[in-house]
Amino acid sequence: MASPWLGFFTRKLLYAFAVLLGINLATFALFFQVSSPDDMARLQLGGKRVTPDAIAKWKAERGYDRPLYYNDKGDGLARFTDTLFVDSSLRMFVFDFGRADSGRDIASEIKRRAWPSLALALPSFIVGLGLSICFALGLAFFRATYVDFWGSVVCVVLMSVSSLFFIVAGQFLFSRLMQLLPVSGFSPTSDAWRFLLLPILIAIIGRLGAETRFHRSIFLEEIGKDYVRTARAKGLSEASVLFVHVLRNALIPILGASVTIIPLLFMGSLITESFFSIPGLGSYLIEAIASQDFAIVRAMVFVGSVLYIIGLVLTDISYSLADPRIRLQ
């Protein structure tokens, strides 16, 4: 029993290393294709009227004075290892993100900003998933009725409206008009719920329509299968068939779609955090892109990739737990 699991995790680790190395290479190439180290130095130093000496000093302090991929001045293996790409990539695999171009420690910033992102994303994910499953089960139970029809119409309407509309409308209604909640901001104290309640509510509403329709389609597909007809033939009520048998078998695709959202829980919501001024990882990444801080962008892409791979592994494990017929090969 240990052998299949050991082989499974070994393959996943090898795949993960190859994927992370490829993502690092792609991110590195794309970023320096858009912005050269000289452009980054000018932006950080404050404009175009910067002396070449100041640019050279800035690049030397941050290691951007080295060759990107190949060092023709090196000897032997150093021609490939004494480069900016190898140095920055190898450190990432031990989660040594170094310092941002502004001088701050990236790992400390990620740790500090992860909690606001989790405080926003985790309740949104759990409550939103629970509500969408409940609503989808209700629509499947009342399928081919007016409840199902108008419920589907509401879902389509929610899917058609941009999340920006929900954000602006929520800020105007609850903050400006009713003055019940703050417009934006964040507090690390016990008063943080006042700043998080509105973003969480908007995040749930913004995803509710699409998730409900997705889960409804899964439930309707399961309802037409043979085991459902067998359960009905045994005299089970429609509620028992739907809420016990159908729900259990529908957990496999639901888990597959839900576990892969794990990176978003840690990385934060870019739009929501920016509009509500929440100091999370999403706003951290946007600030880094705006300031062309390659060190932060590279670290955030790497962390997101690691989390996504972890999500895929957890998806495979959850499949085997939800359905005993599925075994890891």
Detailed description of the structure:
The chain has 329 residues and is mostly helical. It has helices at residues 2-34, 37-45, 52-62, 78-81, 84-92, 106-141, 146-160, 163-177, 192-223, 226-233, 238-259, 262-267, 270-275, 281-290, 294-322. The protein is built from 15 helices and no strands. Helix 2 packs across helix 3 (52-62) and helix 6 crosses helix 9. 27% of the residues are buried.
Share of β-strand residues: under 5%
Provide the structure class.
mainly alpha
- What would the average pLDDT be, to the nearest integer? 80
Give me the count of strands. Answer: 0
> What is the H/E string?
HHHHHHHHHHHHHHH
Question: Overall 3D geometry?
Answer: globular
Straight-line distance between termini: 11 Å
Task: Compile the SSE list and pairings.
Layout: H1 2-34, H2 37-45, H3 52-62, H4 78-81, H5 84-92, H6 106-141, H7 146-160, H8 163-177, H9 192-223, H10 226-233, H11 238-259, H12 262-267, H13 270-275, H14 281-290, H15 294-322
Helix pairs in contact: 1-15, 2-3, 6-7, 6-9, 6-11, 7-9, 8-9, 9-11, 10-11, 11-15, 14-15
Q: What would a concise description of this structure say?
A:
This protein has 329 residues and is mainly α.
Notable traits:
single chain; 329 residues; mainly alpha
